[in-house]
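Subgroup meeting minutes
Present: P.N., E.W., G.H.
Scribe: E.W.

1. P.N. recapped why we're keeping a running log of single-chain structure predictions: easier to compare across weeks, and new members can see raw inputs and outputs side by side.
2. G.H. added today's entry (673 aa).
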Amino acid sequence: MANRLAGETSPYLVQHQDNPVDWFPWGAEAFELARKLDKPVFVSIGYAACHWCHVMAHESFESNEIARLMNELYVNVKVDREERPDVDAIYMNALQVLGEGGGWPLSAFCLPDGRPFFLGTYFPPKDRFGRPGFIKVLKAMAQAYEKERDKVMENVDGLIDGLRHVDQHYRGTDAGDPGALSASMVVSAGRQIAQRCDAEDGGLAGAPKFPSTSAHELLGRASRLGFGKPARDAFVLWARKMADGGIYDHVGGGFARYSVDTHWLVPHFEKMLSDNGQLLGIYGDAFAMTEERRFAEVIEETVTWLGREMSDPGGGLWASLDADSEGEEGKFYVWRPDEVEAALGFEAMHVTRAYGVTEDGNFEHGATVLSRVTPRGASSDEAHLASLRAKLLAARSKRVRPATDDKLLAGWNALAVSGLCRAWAATGHAPALALAVRVGEFLRREMVGGDRLFRTWKGGAGKLDGTLDDYAFTAAAMFDLAEATLDRSWWDAGATLAGSIRSRFYREEAGAGVFYLTAHDDPEPLIHRPESHHDGALPSGAAVAVEVLVRLGHIAGDDEALGLAERYLARRLASGALGPLGAARLLSALDLFLHAQCVVITDGAGREELLAAARTPYAPARLIVGPWAAASVLEGKTAAGGKARAFVCRGPVCSAPVSAPADLRDLLAAPPS
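Output recorded in log:
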């Protein structure tokens, strides 16, 4: 046998092409060989920017001794979790059935048909850190497969049964009462999340600290409802502390994946498109709430970073930047005082004081992760610091760069489009909208074909049918572009994808609406068909699909879509199985369902000013109506005396028309009744 990864399009798989392990990519060939040889299958799942994936690769997969053992005892399969989220979901859920916390690299020991009998994450080569050594585990699992097949099969049956029970748990047993859907659900969840937040450093209490964007967004929505001040305070503090912390790249823009501490100070340095796309939306909301200049700066710097470091020549955005360079985590990003002085000369003191650069450092080997440690000064002082950071960026550009995962993922690009649209609407930062349109055009041109959507794209070619996440995120992005540009073609593209979601990913089963991660007609049957139900680093595809259906219902008059959304919300939220964090994006969909503000602005003088006024307030249930709307939504809404007028409608009830931008802003900013 031989390593078969050289021809793959995933940079993560290609990273392993020279391993002495006889890796297969995920596919029928590996499992057919395992059946023929009656060998167990070792499935290793990771992603290109994963630090501990690199550690295990270096320690074990590059070891000739360990590779010989793997090749002798197993058929070995390497999976990029970003390329195959469906495969990753199965094994990650199975790991959690075993009571493990999960994480990557994910290591699964499987029957020749792919059903797992034992799972873990990172294993050191030999016993260390309280973990069994990989060599020991490889031998033990192979021996169990050969000598204790009955016990292995019991484990397999238990894990597969556990996967079914997980899905049933999230479905709930109560059919749900649509009449019980109320704003109190959003208020209660917002209160619970606010109580779990760190009152000093923002974000969810404890370490490590993740952006947890779906929960962060729900705090914002709850802030404008009854007793919303604690939620608003928690939302704004969270945004401020992340922007000041080391999780934010103060030199180049953009956020790292998470911080290892409670202060947002020391990150794992990988930078993911999925995180940054969502965070652009958060900072757009934060600016709309407060008009704090710092939030606009984060948007401007992050948009610039996306254009400079994440842009494919085809128009889309790459997946991630690695944490490591020259074999060291964070080496590209950290600074020592002498390095700052070499770049800035006598002005170095301004940066070292403002960003906490010291001889002792706050990271490994005396280096410093930049974080803002002084209060913001006058605008002239901040402009001077910005000019010094630009010089640091020029100096940093001469360092050895982290590797780039240059595949393009449909769902992640779509999240970026939606975040860019929200950031532009709040701040008016034109490059944000220009980038959103560019990425949207790439998606529509290269990855969307009518009602079908590629999951991944690289080197001019698309690959694999999208998951529910890809379809839902992209449909939502198309709707966002329609509202931003008032170009109907975007809306039509989104509506077509929404139709595919309903026909290919949704089913009513035993009285419960189910959104599956994979399509009904997926040509590659998996050992378990994963459902979409809770938020993680990405929002739940099911929740975003519900938002898409709600938008179709309110704007396009699609009562069937609205009814489906209502039934799903009632069933899933009644069960309480998701909790406020797991259900955060679904509760945002409920907020939209209950409080949608459909804004119709007629032609006439002053129309552009009214459109700008409609976009800038913090009004997360706002829907800007265009020519794609149902006739009933547009009926009776006309200009007066040649002047444009705006109507804000909640359900069948519309406000009196207004012509002054300030009046429209007041209507949208008013708390939902």
